[in-house]
User: What shape does this take?
Amino acid sequence: MPHIAVLGAGITGVTTAFHLHQRGFDVTVYDRQRYPAMETSFANGGQLSASNAEVWTTLGTVLKGLKWMLQAEAPLLVNPRPSWHKVSWMAQFLGNIPNYRRNTIKSARLAIAARPFLSEMADRAGVDFDLEKRGILHVYREVGALHHARKVTGLLAEAGLHRQELTGDEVRARDAALTGPFVGGFWTESDMTGDIHKFTVGVARWLERQGVVLRLGHEITDLRRGGDQVHVNDQAFDGIVVCAGVASRWMARALGDHVNIYPVKGYSITVNLNDQTSQGAAPWVSLLDDEAKIVTSRLGPDRLRIAGTAEFNGENRDIRADRIAPLVRWSETMFPDVSTQDVTPWAGLRPMMPSMMPKVGRGRHPQVFYNTGHGHLGWTLSGATADMIGHVVAGAYRPTAQPVTMGTSRPA
Ligand SMILES: Cc1cc2nc3c(=O)[nH]c(=O)nc-3n(C[C@H](O)[C@H](O)[C@H](O)COP(=O)(O)OP(=O)(O)OC[C@H]3O[C@@H](n4cnc5c(N)ncnc54)[C@H](O)[C@@H]3O)c2cc1C
Assistant: This one.
């Protein structure tokens, strides 16, 4: 069978490896870390959220972003020092404003299509990842923001996603932990949450038991094309799939492709709910506070994940205390009886394309493929894009590939 190397053992790499293995390929997964899911797929917001499929490429977001740049604790932070990468990425981001509507609908369709694939992978691999099927609740304190959300609801409906508008009282009635001054909200019953790290590690270890080779602790420093093969460091493969998060950009360049991923940093805290009062006062329903741009997920009885912030500051992984503090304060304001004595901070880099749509498909070289650039929705979309790239790779090696054996829906 053709031997395919998957570059990266985050959520996109591991789900890609799963789909390639399902189709009968010999698969080797590389990662520079000693364990899977140690970078962006480590401690994200946890939301499997078709309801968050709206892309950010609108004039309204740009204007809000400019205003936020002047506020110390705003959800967006841009290092004003210019770099060619940042400037060119932002120019392409603005160029994508006309595609807002199309890309939002496309992204929501992908998110819906991803659900059965993710479930099937978890079932097949027998992975417990603190999945909660309790829906996602978008909450609003301002009527203006609620008005915009109504328009988004229309776009999501075009993609086949139903979400229900709620009054402020109905928002508070959704979960006993919610007491804030909300003017309304939107409830997406079909959305879910789960621990991306547990899922990715569980599936990776299962794949290893099925014969997939995990080359962990192996930094890729050299990628070369030659004849019908691609060389990863010193080993030759029949094909490669680049799933390397923010590193996909330099890898693409080395392979003669342009994949303009910018690292958009985000932060999370995991509030460890060590006592019964905290466990009772933390929400089970997953929240998206649209004005603060903060999401929450309950990861089992004793963990509440809270995530947010978009920081444009290059490939910088520092966990800044002044960006963590607003997340802790938000928790204390929203859920005053939840103890914040034991909080684990984290920062990760969203691999973001200027269109906010992942790069899934072939590169210039016939043996090079990409499944990367999932930005703020990698957990949500990965089930669908892994199937898509599995399909493309199988098409390229058609004479020997096995028929697809899983998945029930494919995005239009
Ligand atoms: C704060 C925050 C909150 C988020 N919340 C959500 C959410 O609620 N829902 C959602 O859907 N998405 C969310 N996301 C986005 C999601 O987490 C990402 O899109 C996803 O994890 C990206 O996965 P990946 O596989 O592309 O990248 P990664 O997980 O970073 O994987 C890439 C892998 O490539 C490896 N690698 C890189 N370079 C090399 C090299 N030279 N040699 C070998 N290996 C290499 C890395 O070690 C890494 O393991 C959030 C992101 C952040 C930062």
About this structure: The radius of gyration is 21 Å. The first strand starts at residue 3 and ends at 7.
